[in-house]
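Quick one before lunch.
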Amino acid sequence: MFVDEIKLSVQSGAGGSGSVSFKKTSSKSSPSGGSGGQGGSVIITVNEELNDLSHIISNSSLKAENGTDGNKNFQNGKKGKDLIIEVPKGTKIKVDNEVYADLHENKSSFIVLEGSKAGRGNYDLISKRVPNPQFCEHGEKRNKIEIKLTYSIYSDLVIVGLPNAGKSTLITKLTNSKAQIADYEFTTTSPNLGILNNSDLKLKICDLPGLIKGASDGVGMGERILRHIRNTKLIVYLLDPLNQSYSLGDQVNLLEKEIIEYDQNFSKIPTIKVINKLDKSEISINDSINISAQTGLNIEMLIQNIVEIFQPDKRRLYGDFQKITLQKDDLIINQDHGKYICTGRFVESIIGLSGNKDEVINEIFYRYENSYLPNKLEELGVIDGDTIMLGNLEFEYKK
Ligand SMILES: Nc1nc2c(ncn2[C@@H]2O[C@H](COP(=O)(O)OP(=O)(O)OP(=O)(O)O)[C@@H](O)[C@H]2O)c(=O)[nH]1
Ligand SMILES: [Mg+2]
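Model of the magnesium ion complex:
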């Protein structure tokens, strides 16, 4: 089944933790604990061979590999393998309904989540201030995010029209497609694709389900149809002279209105008007071609017209677009009656330590005092005597 929209939960790999160990020589002992390996990243990459998202299970939860922990004798942990999700050209990545990437180039990729940071072992923590650390850092936990992928078919031309206009009949005449045809409305429920093989050109054609009034507001299959116009180069309006409710002119107006209300930029895509069912009616309007998809009348003329339009090559509206990699909130401060509860990645990087208790506490306070956190708390109105919570660590604020 054709799938053009899925929701996923993805997680970066956790960072491996550092270790505390000491190398003993006859005269002294020195830190030798290795650092953890970074967690795997979540990367979405384009594979132009793909034609939909059906290879990904919707609502699944996918995880990159964790980094492994560091060990004694300077042994660093291994980096976790990235999670690579392949998508077809024309896939958008959304988080909370905001577009973070729109991928069009083959092999172009977007790092949804960077692998979580590894913790340093006591060897990598040696500094002038702490020449002989007896503690190490924890690896950062997995980061999790919910994403939505939507795919807009890459085609050279789309056939749009009201239900029953003969769109599927036309694609079977132009291409090798075996689209279902029937004498009732909404026969086509997901797009059909076919290739028109002409001596000069090879064109990918897409037959879409019928459009109705209100489609741009989601009526009928609304956006599930209209999104597939996004990555085409030519729109063929297929008009039905036998339609009892809409004249040919009204059909053009309705189709144009729905398409442009969905995305104003679609008005830049060239269009042609084709009137079907010439075997039953010869009525016509300006700038249009009359054909019969069923009997094949004037189909060759239509193909010649299309081929001419495609020389020189046509361009698409949209190209690659990417925002910065997504990361979860760095610092969250919740206030509750003189209590300041601080959480988030930033806090984890301050308190995520283990080893000798006194050293760990010293190091946490050193990191806290030298961070922007005290300033942030002052901005929020903290006063002496208030309680600060960094994760599970609780202490009294003093300027
Ligand atoms: N007389 C005549 N009938 C046609 C012609 N083209 C298609 N039809 C008929 O019109 C009906 C609808 O054809 P389809 O190709 O399924 O139409 P569609 O536009 O794909 O319909 P939906 O998928 O429901 O939107 C069928 O009964 C076809 O046989 C034509 O050129 N002449
Ligand atoms: Mg159809």
